[in-house]
Design brief:
Structural class: alpha+beta
Number of strands: 12
CATH topology of the largest domain: Fic-like fold
Largest sheet: 5 strands, mixed
Radius of gyration: 28 Å
């Protein structure tokens, strides 16, 4: 394929406005030159006319002295040096250039670290071997720059004289960039903070807090999907969440969990989809799909699920638990392997990783779904952060069943996405649990216990009525309604009712 020129200054690149007229560089230049059919990287690079490096939401603008040579190796070197690894772009590029272009790069610089990294990535991504002898010189280079993106310990490749520290396999390897927000979250050691908080609480209070948060998370996971199931289904799913991390994740386990989530499967096909899938609406007049997100092709599902499984058993054990949970869970939801139940299983996978890695205090579940429900708009923005860039690259047609049929190869789009926004969002959810939910719930239970004790000091009352009294006071701004005084609590004297209302007002800041 003959590439287009690399050096034209533009104001708009593939529908994305630049902050000023500039020359696309690195991945942007390669996508433009080779017309690569890939989702645009979240942040692109360009060479501006001024001697000032600056950033916008989706562009990094560099100075003329940063300008790469206007050719393949120049922009590849620029990308590896300044932009980290975008595996989807690289794989599409390697397919477009063919093996000879990469072989020429390596032969021209056999000891160069960038050349050997590209050589390794070509063979790793495409599963093929270039016509090159094994490297015999050059110090071992890291495939991923650990100052740019999160990595694993890695294994040595003597053929390329590199250390493969990629956080996954060719079947599934999303990348997470190091950002100030993620660095700060990791440095906080949220798991340690949660354990110290729990250690200061009486054991019975911990148990009650754990039970409440578990039920709250289960209920919230259904509410996120717009469902209001009976209490027994909420409790059943809560028991499943409580066991997260005890069984390895594989296709059989995911299908077992789906059966539990669905319950009544008379109108749902269980197991991996046998046709296309999308998230969105249907045109009310024609029934045509209006997708917000297009799921992976059903033909690709077995291999993608195997990739998820390999990640969970391998790289996930070396990454920070919250980073690993974000990669696994959001990777799953983008793949969307089932007809129904994907959302709750996606959030279950967060619990799975955190529990399996011992991130949670013993016996306690972080109520991630409850926090997500409370921040549902931010959650949707995070999901759309990739779906919005993915949709334009998927060619599809509607079927006579109101579904979609994907017409092009898309599996790599689900293997190699930028999970940075997802990791930042999940870390913020976990931090909210440690900073707000755990302290608030324990304060509530302490105040509720005090309420019960002080009511018993005023009047004898069975627990059933005590709970009803508490609910009435909470729902009626701390006052007993005329109806309640005349019916359920007609036995209270005016003095007792006034004492109870005054006592509730004292405790109310914690209730």
């Amino acid at each position: 394929m003959q590439p287009k020129p690399y050096s034209a200054a533009v104001r708009v690149f593939h529908g994305r406005w630049l902050p000023e007229e500039a020359i696309p560089a690195g991945y942007a230049a390669l996508i433009g030159a080779y017309e690569l059919p890939v989702p645009l990287p979240r942040i692109l690079a360009a060479i501006g006319p001024r001697h000032k490096v600056y950033q916008t939401d989706d562009w990094n603008i560099y100075t003329p002295r940063h300008a790469p040579d206007a050719d393949l190796i120049g922009n590849l070197t620029f990308a590896l040096r300044y932009e980290g690894l975008d595996l989807a772009v690289l794989k599409a590029l390697f397919c477009a250039t063919g093996p000879d272009a990469i072989t020429d790069i390596v032969r021209a610089s056999p000891t160069g670290s960038y050349a050997r990294r590209l050589w390794f990535l070509y063979e790793w991504l495409l599963g093929t071997r270039l016509d090159l002898p094994d490297a015999i010189q050059g110090s071992y280079a890291l495939v991923v720059d650990p100052d740019q993106q999160w990595v694993t310990g890695g294994a040595t490749s003597t053929r390329h004289r590199v250390r493969n520290n990629l956080p996954g396999t060719p079947a599934f390897c999303p990348m997470v960039f190091r950002t100030p927000a993620l660095e700060a979250f990791v440095a906080r050691n949220l798991a340690g903070e949660a354990r110290r908080l729990i250690a200061e609480m009486p054991a019975d209070l911990v148990a009650r807090t754990a039970a409440f948060l578990l039920l709250k998370d289960s209920r919230s996971s259904f509410q996120i999907e717009g469902e209001d199931p009976p209490q027994y289904r909420i409790q059943r799913w809560g028991r499943v969440i409580a066991e997260a991390g005890r069984r390895p994740i594989d296709r059989a386990e995911l299908e077992r969990l789906q059966r539990i989530v669905i319950g009544d499967a008379r109108f749902v096909r269980l197991g991996l989809r046998a046709e296309g899938g999308f998230v969105g609406e249907h045109d009310r007049h024609t029934g045509e799909p209006i997708p917000d997100h297009l799921s992976a092709r059903h033909e690709d599902l077995p291999e993608l699920i195997d990739g998820l499984t390999a990640f969970d058993k391998g790289a996930a054990r070396e990454l920070d638990p919250v980073l690993a949970a974000a990669v696994l869970a959001f990777g799953f939801i983008y793949i969307h392997p089932f007809e129904d139940g994907n959302g709750r299983l996606h959030r279950y996978l967060i619990h799975h990783v955190l529990a399996e890695r011992g991130f949670n205090p013993p016996g306690l579940v972080f109520p991630v779904s409850a926090v997500i429900l409370d921040q549902i708009d931010d959650y949707r923005k995070v999901l759309e952060s990739y779906s919005r860039r993915l949709l334009p690259q998927i060619h599809w047609r509607s079927t006579d069943r109101g579904n979609v049929e994907v017409l092009n190869e898309t599996a790599d789009f689900y293997r190699f996405f930028d999970a940075t926004p997802h990791a930042e969002f999940l870390f913020a959810c976990v931090a909210r649990t440690v900073d707000v939910d755990l302290p608030a719930e324990t304060a509530f239970l302490r105040a509720y216990d005090a309420f019960k004790d002080r009511v018993h000091g005023i009047v004898d009352m069975p627990d059933r009525l005590l709970d009803l009294l508490f609910r009435f006071l909470r729902q009626n701004d701390g006052r007993l309604s005329k109806r309640a005084r005349e019916r359920e609590f007609a036995g209270l004297t005016d003095k007792e009712a006034t004492q109870i209302e005054a006592m509730f007002a004292e405790l109310r800041p914690h209730l």
